[in-house]
Amino acid sequence: MAKAHANSWEVTDEFWKLVEPLVPQPVRDPGKHYERAAGAGRPAKPPRLVFEAIMYVLRTGCQWKALPAERFGSASAIHHKFMLWSKAGFFENLWKAGLAEYDDCEGIAWRWQSIDGAMFKAPLAQQAVGRNPTDRGKKGSKRHLLVDGRGVPLSLVVTGANAHDVTQLEAVLSCCMVKRPTPKQRRSKHLCADAGYRGKNAMKIIVAHGYIPHVVGRKSEAEHKKRDPKKKARRWVVQACHGWFNRFRKLLVRYEKLEHTFLALNHLAAAIIALRKIHLPVNIIYG
């Protein structure tokens, strides 16, 4: 009996059509003639198999060495290719392509944007790591997100867990993956944040980027909700987005040692979140 849908890590044909044009190609000297010698080792793995293996790790949270050999072959070869693609900026480009597709199909909800950070354990991290003040000073990292009105990530920065949200405000707002045309009216660009972004310097940064700031503490939000129980804080979408990232088990606890490899996995997750917001007759990404 056929499956109702693909597993969350399987790459559908429709999804691969978006991914394949962005896969980095081997850099070769045009002045040389390359010919594979007999017995020169195993041939290179197909890019689609490599990408599906990376999706498998991202979705299931397994160790790279735990990849099923009967399906993906050598785990070290998969990880080596992942490192090369990460350094080539493939996953960041995929995120940009996902946002472009989302913007074309649905339109980025620019008017009400939200920003916030979330901490997680990072026991093996060697870069972008710090003492987590909420976890007895153990090693941890923090993901800082800027999202649109539907919760789709527009900017992402990873730091140590001891980096306060407000210290990364400039970096997050400056790293937006998509440039928005200047709105005709200033009232069409708002930024929602919690009380962690209070302060004169933070207000200056928010206003300098063209936003109208809405920095509200939890107590004020609770009072507003008492007056109108149906009203939700607009910044709830950034909290929802952090929850969507946590559905990718490789990101729930950070075991990646290097910053660029962990960022690459986050960029891939961000691309999937953006693509899943596109309303299609058949979803190209499951799970």
End-to-end Cα distance, whole Å, is 20 Å
Structural class by secondary-structure content: alpha/beta
Task: Characterize the main sheet.
Answer: 6 strands, mixed
Mean pLDDT: 88
H/E element string?
Answer: HHHHHEEEEHEHEHHHH
**Percent of residues in beta strands?**
5-15%
Number of helices: 11
Q: Describe the global form.
A: globular
Summarize the amount of helix as a percent range.
Answer: 25-40%
* Spans where pLDDT lies below 50 across 5 or more residues: none
Rg from alpha-carbon coordinates: 21 Å
Counted beta strands: 6
Task: Describe the overall structure.
Helices cover 39% and strands 13% of the residues. The protein has 287 residues and is of the alpha/beta class. Strands 1, 2, 3, 4, 5 and 6 form a six-stranded mixed beta sheet that branches. The two termini are 20 Å apart. The model has no long low-confidence stretch (mean pLDDT 88).
